[in-house]
Design goal:
- With about 575 residues, the protein is α+β, with helices and mostly antiparallel strands.
- Helix 2 packs antiparallel against helix 10 and helix 3 packs across helix 6.
- It has 18 helices and 21 strands.
- It has 3 domains: about 170 residues, DD-peptidase/beta-lactamase superfamily (Beta-lactamase), CATH 3.40.710; about 120 residues, DD-peptidase/beta-lactamase superfamily (Beta-lactamase), CATH 3.40.710.10; about 250 residues, Alpha/Beta hydrolase fold, catalytic domain (Rossmann fold, 3-Layer(aba) Sandwich).
- The strands form 5 sheets. It has a 9-stranded mixed β-sheet with strand order 11-12-15-17-16-18-19-20-21, with helices on both faces. Strands 2-1-10-9-8 form a 5-stranded antiparallel β-sheet. A 3-stranded antiparallel β-sheet has the order 3-7-6.
- It is globular, with a radius of gyration of 25 Å.
Length: about 575
Amino acid sequence: MPRPYMAFFWLFLCASAFATPSTGGDSAFLAEIRGLEAAYGGHLGLMAKNLKTGETVAYNASERFPTASVIKLPIMAAFYRMVDQRQIDPSAKVVLTSDDKKPSLLEQMSDGMTMTLLDAVKLMIVLSDNTATNLVLDRLGGTHEERLHRVNDFLAEKGLKNTRLLNRLYTRSSKKDTPEAIRYGIGVSTPEDMVVLLEALHKKTLVDPSSCDAMVAILKEQFYNDMIPRFLPAADCKVLEVAHKTGGISETKVDVGLVLSDRADIAMAIFVDKHPDHREGLNNGGTMLAALVARAVWNRFTGMTGFTERRVDASQVEWNPIPGGKWGIYRSIAAPFPHKDRSTGYKRDDGTVYPWFPHYADSSIIVFVPEGFRESPSGANLIIHFHGHLNDNLGVLERYRMPQAMTAEKINALLVLPQGPNRARDSFGGKMEDEGGFKRLVEDVLATMRREGVVESVTVGHILISAHSGGYRPAAFALERGGLTDHVHDLFLFDAFYAQQEYFRGWLERGTGTITAAYTEHLEQEHVTFSDLMKPKVGDRLRFMKTTVDHDSVVQTHFGDWLSRMDPVWKLAK
């Protein structure tokens, strides 16, 4: 555990000891929540509402998160809406076929097994059965698109602004290559959206009152109780029931539900994303974080105290299949951060302060592997992209369509997205500014990919460095002192020519590499001056163009076009 991480953790324990209620209002509660997030890792989203008093607490509540299996709750709600409208019969018989089977309990059942549609709904919620989910979903409309619209239109009607079902479960053939589907998988939502749904369910306005009662009864039978209910003090209450739906996939753990008791009725939605602990079981760090946050919310609304603390931490690559390939995320000591020069955070000249957590604690690296990727005789080709200000590597994956562009242009390379300063206005490159730091990053990526069976060797092929906005700085230092200059043949700059021009100039003069850059008006002078100086020396190895799109649209506008012009060594074999 890095020193500042450990210090923060013990400071938090000593300050709160998990034993005193947050009597200082929301600021004290949010400090407690941030402490839990810092101690357990991952990215947390929370919304909770005391349904008796109207009080709310929120943390990243409007931010979008993957739903994992929690999207099955909206599917159930859409099902009951159709029941209420007599468009579907819950007693209708469903026959299980071999084609229906997906990873689930029903996968183990015999072909020809029959059940009612309502039985499938119960399996979908109580055991989170994926086959049952598809059996229900397939009966909500005649086509895949109609079924998605049936759920999503219902959610929009009920005021859920950011919640969408994105695909049938375990059905890659129908998965889209939209940014949402690539980033979030089968569903996307926000904590505040889920509380809107839960409150409507509690008030019996989500669907007809009798159907709301039926849904709550099913949710109370939830088999997986290792998050919201885990640390709630049932023995100290006359009544305490939890009607909830859980979800977990990749680095995501989610639990949303109603806590119904004689002390408080609470609608609660907890999302944990980008968590490095991939182990199954009760001690998973993301699961523990969600459970402890649920107890903190309970304490906040009831005035009770206490809960148990345990810490776990583990890391491995977690893979996510998408159209055109797969992407994985893992943690590495070779990642740009943490770094000693940001061990106490960072204060900008304008007075903005970015604490060490969460802005410099993230050591994650995302790798996209195109379908059909092969090592060339000279080694594995890599495109390494450094993101800009106020962004993170998952944001790049979602917003800039880089994997989609690589797939469309049949690029034979691994796309590597290391985490820079996390959602901060800071261009510092972390370990990329250390001597040999870039080389250690590349070696770690290839060693990890060999362990995962993606490559057979750790031989470095061609490297393309890509940078957007503030990502210019780690790119410049990688060229100047990264240790793999002879492998870097191309540099893409997306409105990213703010400083360190001498490093770019030195790289051009020492080798045969090419810089391709697009700039908006605010960086025009820097590009024109550099071009006037270098164009006579390097000729067409310098390709600068003024773009008509805004700063945040440069990558997705030009990345694919530039890839289309790359040498054959970058292309997949036909």
